[in-house]
Amino acid sequence: MARRKKLYEGKAKILYEGPEPGTLVQYFKDDATAFNAEKKDVIEGKGVLNNRLSEFFMTGLANIGVPNHFLKRLNMREQLIRQVEIIPLEVIVRNFAAGSICKRLGLEEGTPLPRPIVEFSYKDDALGDPLVPEEYIIAFGWASQQDLDDIVALALRVNDFLTGVMFGVGIKLVDFKIEIGRIWDNDFMRLIVADEISPDSCRLWDIETGQKLDKDVFRRDLGSLTDAYTEVARRLGVLPSNVTHAAKPHVIN
């Protein structure tokens, strides 16, 4: 295999230089982290599942006209993506109360929210990804008011799509987070969905039982994370064969 340049390694993924200008190879790791990486483990097969699931969601979004960075899946753990300039924000969409909003507002977990709520957090692990208001985002130049309007519109379209897809297989979309990137066509800038969409970045509950099928299984020691992600993939019809025994491809840095 040709030597590839590693450009970035995060908690769950590695980005390599792509084969063509303007492309990257995104590699999904088996690493699981929680509580700002204070809790860590390696969950065999997680990267394979998230690669397939993110491919499924990004392809579905593209089919309904929601632009994103996904180009094609390369193998069990890697996909070819567009290189984008990531806006340093996590865009959070909440449909039901869970996680930090319960602590902040004293809400009971699972409380339906009056409407989908879009929040922004500043991407900085050292600071714990703090929530930031739109005024901060504009003042510090992370995004313009027009950008924010477009980001909210994109996030709500993603929410509509994911909510419908999940409801169709008996899963409640509690909340999720996405990242947004900028790309340029000559002098024209566009905002597109980037990073990943997977059970790592969503809260997913079984509609009938309330069983958690997302990273909260790992956060709260509720059982096997691989089993939870496999169940999501099975219901969506994207379960790759031999997931739990899928070997990592040899990657030369």
State the end-to-end distance. 10 Å
Shape: globular
CATH superfamily of the largest domain: ATP-grasp fold, B domain
| Number of helical elements | 6
Mean pLDDT across every amino acid position: 92
Number of discrete domains: 2
Largest sheet: 6 strands, antiparallel
Structural class: alpha+beta
What's the architecture of the largest domain, going by CATH?
2-Layer Sandwich
CATH class of the largest domain: Alpha Beta
What is the helix content? 25-40%
Number of E strands: 13
Low-confidence segments: 243-253
**Gyration radius, rounded:** 18 Å
Beta-strand percentage? Answer: 25-35%
The name CATH uses for the topology of the largest domain is D-amino Acid Aminotransferase, Chain A, domain 1
| Oligomeric organization of the protein chains | single chain
List its traits.
five-stranded antiparallel beta sheet; 253 residues; 2 domains; disordered C terminus; alpha+beta; 6 helices
Topology at a glance:
Elements: E1 6-9, E2 13-17, E3 23-28, E4 31-34, E5 39-42, H1 46-63, E6 70-73, E7 78-82, E8 85-86, E9 89-96, H2 100-105, E10 112-122, H3 134-139, H4 145-168, E11 171-185, E12 188-194, E13 202-206, H5 216-219, H6 225-236
Antiparallel strand pairs: 1-2, 2-3, 3-7, 4-5, 6-7, 8-11, 9-10, 9-11, 11-12, 11-13
Helix pairs in contact: 1-6
